[in-house]
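Weekly sync, protein design subgroup
Attendees: M.S., D.O., the rotation student, P.L. (late)

Item 1: inverse folding check
M.S. brought a backbone from last month's batch and wanted to see whether the design step gives back something sensible before we order anything. D.O. pointed out we never logged the input encoding, so this time it goes straight into the notes. Structure tokens as presented (312 positions):
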């Protein structure tokens, strides 16, 4: 016997308007089709989302395939310093005589990795903690909410300072620090969604039929919680890229590993004489954050039409 069969044979459900989307306020059973291919198709029909996705794809491809197409060492200082952009050196060389395009491509892979890794970690931790807190409620919710509030007030800069002093600066350390300080906002979204879904009729019917809380949570609630939680994780990725760039800018990351933030930081003394050292990484950081935020906003407008109408 499945939860689906019990629900269909048991208590009558309110009619579901399939024209609405997941968070459109329908109190009945959410449709899996609305949270899956439907919103994905709408996403790929939105021009701003397509532009964001194309740019993000170019950044990812450039960071992964670029070093193979342009196989110059980003670390070796073997060229004349501060050469301007030319045919031989498309983005010139830096103050130590390193090919700057090779460093930009290597730095892009670090920046993109940090954004994706932090978003996935925050999505996993936040979804698990938030779903359990919101769905079970009571003492479980109270304890987990306190845990979320504790991590929410910890500043990333303080943790980064202490961790880099004790363990040494590295990319995995930056990812860990950012994930520890950013997962609470995803957990709060997941908790709110879990509390809303836990009161819906199909969940109550499953409980009345004798299915365990854990089974209802995993098989029914979590799949319908994913769209808004994914939107929150997308926003987290943009914030992680900005924060990593900020930490690199003030020297709290590994100086031997180029990232767009560290390239921007090392360009400070040369902004008047070698503009490309600051303009290129700064522009790329701006564009990737703009693209990720644009994608997140579009996903939010599609998945939360009520909020979109309020904003307009």
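Designed sequence read out in the meeting:
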């Amino acid at each position: 016997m499945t939860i689906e069969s019990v629900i269909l044979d048991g208590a009558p459900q309110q009619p579901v308007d399939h024209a609405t989307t997941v968070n459109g306020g329908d109190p009945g059973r959410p449709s899996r089709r609305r949270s899956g291919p439907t919103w994905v198709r709408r996403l790929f029909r939105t021009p701003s989302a397509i532009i964001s996705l194309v740019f993000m794809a170019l950044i990812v491809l450039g960071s992964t395939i670029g070093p193979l197409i342009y196989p110059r060492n980003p670390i070796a200082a073997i060229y004349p310093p501060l050469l301007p952009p030319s045919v031989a050196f498309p983005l010139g060389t830096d103050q130590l005589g390193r090919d700057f395009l090779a460093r930009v491509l290597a730095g892009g892979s670090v920046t993109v990795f940090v954004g994706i890794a932090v978003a996935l970690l925050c999505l996993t931790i936040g979804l698990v903690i938030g779903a359990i807190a919101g769905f079970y409620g009571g003492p479980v919710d109270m304890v987990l909410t306190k845990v979320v509030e504790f991590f929410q007030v910890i500043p990333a800069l303080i943790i980064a300072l202490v961790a880099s002093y004790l363990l040494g600066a590295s990319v995995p350390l930056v990812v860990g620090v950012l994930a520890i300080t950013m997962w609470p906002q995803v957990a709060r979204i997941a908790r709110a969604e879990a509390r809303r879904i836990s009161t819906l009729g199909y969940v109550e019917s499953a409980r009345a039929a004798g299915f365990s809380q854990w089974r209802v949570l995993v098989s029914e609630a979590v799949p319908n919680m994913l769209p808004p939680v994914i939107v929150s994780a997308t926003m987290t990725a943009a914030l992680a890229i900005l924060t990593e760039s900020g930490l690199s800018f003030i020297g709290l990351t590994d100086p031997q590993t180029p990232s767009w933030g560290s390239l921007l930081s090392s360009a400070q003394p040369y902004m008047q004489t070698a503009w490309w050292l600051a303009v290129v990484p700064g522009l790329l950081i701006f564009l990737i954050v703009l693209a990720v935020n644009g994608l997140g906003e579009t996903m939010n407008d599609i998945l939360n039409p009520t909020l979109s109408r309020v904003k307009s």
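Discussion: The chain has a mean pLDDT of 82. The chain has 13 helices and no strands.
Action: P.L. to compare against the previous round before Friday.
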